[in-house]
Amino acid sequence: MPFAGRDLVSITDFTNQEIEAVLDLADQMDSALKKGMEIELCKGKDMATLFYEPSTRTRGSFERAMHKLGGTVISFAEAKVMSSAAKGETIADTVRVLKSYADIIVIRHPWEGAAKVAADYADVPVINAGDGSHEHPTQTLCDLYTLKKEKGRLKGLTVLLWGDLKYGRTVHSLIYALARFGAEVLCAPLQGLDVPGPVLRRIHSEYNYIPERVKPDDMTSMIGEVDAFYIAPFKPYNLALWSDFDSSPCPEINIREALGKADAIYVTRVQNERRDRPADTESEGGYPTVDSKFLSQLKKKTLVMHPLPRVNELAYELDDYPTSVYFQQAAYGVPIRMALTALLLGASSIEIPERTGVSGQVMAYSKYKQVIGVKCPNANCVSNLESRYLVPKLNMLKRNVGEPLTLRCTYCDHETHPPYIASSEWHQGLLKNKKYYSSDSFMLDRIRPENLIIFDSEKEAQAHGFMPSKRTAKQRNGGDAT
Ligand code: NCD
Q1: Which residue has the higher pLDDT, 247 or 91?
Q2: What is the distance between the alpha carbons of residues 197 and 166, in angstroms, rounded to a whole number?
Q3: Which of the residue ranges 214-228, 306-320, 394-408 would you say has the lowest mean pLDDT?
Q4: pLDDT tens-digit profile of 196-213?
Q5: Which residue out of 142, 172, 308 has the highest number of ligand 1 atoms within 8 Å of its CB and is therefore the one to mutate?
Q6: Stretch 258-276: mean pLDDT
Q7: Contact 114, 122 (CB under 8 A)
Q8: Are 175 and 167 in contact (CB under 8 A)?
Q9: Is residue 136 annotated as a catalytic residue, yes or no?
Q10: Which protein residues are within 6 Å of ligand 1, measured from CB?
Q11: pLDDT-above-90 percentage for the chain
Q12: Is 57 a catalytic residue?
């Protein structure tokens, strides 16, 4: 698919081949910049940068990128207070206005799903520069570019993700990309800040990664009070994390081996602004600062990466290490964002080969319309915060017989398991048979997907004329359908 006119909301919006095309063009941009060439591909074009959250690197590099392409920038660095958002304007209205002033919009917002709303309402390309704790796809492009530059490949690399893997949006986009390119992912989250379940389920269902916990071994003596380590290699090894270490079917890899495998450590800060209260790393299992002592546990050539800004999690003594690439990662933001902007504006075109293989596919979930009263469970999802005009959009995940009914929010990827179901074809069309059932009853497997109606509550079901069935409790293994 050509790039011109498209949005980048999630890193999964691009196939592997498309990501590689952006990285290749960024390489050309980088060389041109180094030679001091005039690039001017976007002369006469305008970019709006709409930032509702602080930013140094992302906004700075987008704006620099547009200037280097010969375009102009309308900058809303403090959109929360300096745009009409302060007067209560919605995201949809703001971008519908901005699209008349700009050819491309870059948005950063504290709510998950905000960039998707902007993309839905602006008919110019929209780039997600970070939406709450959801995703940050352009940081991932910088991360992948850095890894490729330094290591020459992505497939088969082992990347250790370190820190706040729950609220850190950069790691969510990076996990999807690493899984798709066949890298191995080791996760070392701060206690309670694990990779969210929906992210893991997605890499499992789409890319065959099965998370399992790594054997704790002597990790405490080695590196201090780290809560847990996980590893998620590509099939056929299928190791890695997750909740239940003791029943892990494959615990043969231990921490020492896991650390010894890492080609890169990707350190992240605790995202205090996304938590109800600031982290107390002492009481939350503590967390060692990544310093020269820690690095001595890793391979000599392990890259030290960080999306920045850093707080206390990465020692300044590492800044001069030859394998520390975090400032380089930030510097690559300019050629990467130049390439992306030029492609989305149609100022540069690249032939993308046909999609091949699972790793290049974007998985389509079935859109489900007959969802009554079910909302996204994430209080920070844009669909709940701008419910004045947005209706919840939930996709039903593919399920095997016996698995729970799961809906995933198309704005923020959070999942919910709605409690009640009914069929639009009630038995023999008799009103007395118009019944609703518990979603964990056997009826879930009996109702054809095209007839399935989903309710958030018994009240909703009854308001739509359905009566409780005798069997609204767990009935998966039998019983009649009345
Ligand atoms: C990150 C972000 O905003 O998510 N910063 C960035 O864009 N490089 C990481 C962070 O703030 O911790």
Answers
A1: 91
A2: 9
A3: 214-228
A4: 989 988 888 888 777 666
A5: 308
A6: 88
A7: no
A8: no
A9: yes
A10: 57-58, 130, 136, 139, 169-170, 268-269, 307-309
A11: 57
A12: yes
Which residue has tokens 């002597």? 218
Q: What pLDDT does 9 receive?
A: 98
- How many whole angstroms from 309 Cα to the centroid of ligand 1? 6
First to last CA, the chain: 49
Span from the CA of 450 to the centroid of ligand 1 (angstroms): 42
pLDDT for 209:
78
Q: Residues 21-70: pLDDT tens digits?
A: 999 999 999 999 999 998 999 999 999 999 999 999 999 999 999 999 99
CA–centroid distance, 482 to ligand 1, in Å, is 53
The CA dihedral of 31, 36, 38, 44, to the nearest 10 degrees, is 90
Distance CA 74, CA 82 (A): 13
User: 97-106, 256-265, 473-482: which has the minimum mean pLDDT?
Assistant: 473-482
Mean pLDDT of the chain: 84
Q: Which of 6, 45, 59, 108 is catalytic?
A: 108
Q: What is the 3-state secondary structure (H, E, C) of the chain?
A: CCCCCCCECCHHHCCHHHHHHHHHHHHHHHHHHHCCCCCCCCCCCEEEEEECCCCCHHHHHHHHHHHHCCCEEEEECCHHHHCHHHHCCCHHHHHHHHCCCCCEEEEEECCECHHHHHHHHCCCCEEEEEECCCECHHHHHHHHHHHHHHHCCCCCCEEEEEECCCCCHHHHHHHHHHHHCCCEEEEEECCCCCCCHHHHHHHHHHHCCCCEECECCCHHHHHCCCCCCEEECCCCCCCCCCCCCCCCCCCCCEHHHHHHHCCEEEECCCCHHHCCCCCCCCCCCCCCCECHHHHCCCCCCCEEECCCCCCCCECHHHCCCCCECHHHHHHCHHHHHHHHHHHHCCCCCCCCCCCCCHHHCCCCCEECCCEECCCCCCCCEHHHHCCCCCCCCEEECCCCCCCCCCEEECCCCCEECCCEEEECCCHHHCHHHCEEEECCCCHHHHCCHHHEEEECCHHHHHHCCCEECCCCCCCCCCCCCC
Measure the CA–CA gap between 117 and 94, rounded to whole angstroms: 11
**Per-residue pLDDT reduced to its tens digit, 118-151:** 999 999 999 999 999 999 999 999 999 999 999 9
pTM, rounded to two decimals:
0.88
Q: What is the mean pLDDT of residues 348-359?
A: 62
Residue 227 has pLDDT above 50, yes or no: no
Residue 228 has pLDDT above 60, yes or no: no
**Domains, the chain, with CATH or none:** 11-136+334-344 (3.40.50.1370), 138-325 (3.40.50.1370), 365-476 (no CATH)
Give the C-alpha separation, 191 to 283, whole Å.
Answer: 10
